[in-house]
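Issue: ligand-bound run for pyridoxal-5'-phosphate - logging full I/O for the record.

Environment: standard queue, default settings, no custom constraints.

Inputs:
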Amino acid sequence: MSGRLGRSTTAVHGVLHRRADWSPVAPPLIQSSTFINPVGSDEPVLYAGDGNTPTQLAVAKKYAALEGAEDAVFVSSGMAATALAHLAVLRPGDHLVASRWIYGGTKRFFDEELSRLGIEVTYASPDEHRLWRKSVRKQTRALFVETPTNPLVRVVDLAPIAKLAHEYGVALLVDGTFASPINFRPLEHGADVVITSATKYLNGHSDVIAGAVGGSASFVEEVSRLMRLWGQAVDPFAAWLVDRGMRTLAVRMERHNTNGLAVARWAATQKWIAKAHYPGLESHPDHEVAARSLDGFGGMIGLELAGGVAAAERFLARLRIVTHAPSLAGVESLVSEPRITSHSHFTAEERAALGFPDGFVRLSCGIEDAEDIIGDLEQAGASR
Ligand SMILES: Cc1ncc(COP(=O)(O)O)c(C=O)c1O
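Outputs:
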């Protein structure tokens, strides 16, 4: 872990040389949308809509260093990052093989938007290795995986999928939002492109919508071109808030990791919780993959309540510290029901088939004291 933190120190806090006297310790926020242009210059203009102003570039550089990417770009949301990364690699007539275990918004983008552009998508479960190979066609240009997954916190072994991608010369795109680059860096495991919702752990304070894409310089240049044309640049203030969040990312992740493990271990012993899904538990189907590939199991837990929707609603209504709200990965613990948030466009049967039947709640452990989170969950669940 110390090696990782060392890397995070230089990536996030920057310089290995002594800073100049009187320079600011905190990175400056340069909120200007436009910059004075030298008359007669044919250099690119500086414009926040082009994503090339100092605060926007500074945060991208730090994120690229954390992921081990050649370059990165910040955009207006995690969904913008997902959309632009896919549009950068796919053209009408192309084909994508995507994991079946993905965030509902991503699934909708594939089903409703890629299909409109004449791009076909085949879904495969990450544990069906043969199906991935069988799904690759002459028109396949990319494979997409989310890991750890929303909301079941499944952890995908990227090695066989990266091998397949490289064998067929197609790009592997990975959404690593649930891990943050402190716990998992997809590019180290064979991915070509990493996507993150910076709204989540990178920012960590539930006060920003932003996203980022990392990869080769040429890929990031193409994403940046699309970002400009589709108007998806990140606002400089949002970029600055993410930068500020990233300065505490490593210590926040340590706390999310210890809280996640403590809460999951406790949840696994509760009778009113039919099942606790957390990759740090030995009972989790991906525990072995998670233990060898992640630097921490994270703060996300799936809780299947005995008693379905009625039990979930009773439980949610009684919580005091843990807040019932969509989104995740902030300093405050949040809980939500995928059936009405992240996966509301799936039918109840589809959700059940994917492993999260109605009555399933997704818990994002914040950085409060673990015993306070557990105490709150206990009083809300035990009073049934
Ligand atoms: C795994 C994952 N990817 C992408 C997104 C989209 O992020 P945003 O809300 O920043 O658009 C989410 C949102 O919950 C997510 O959970």
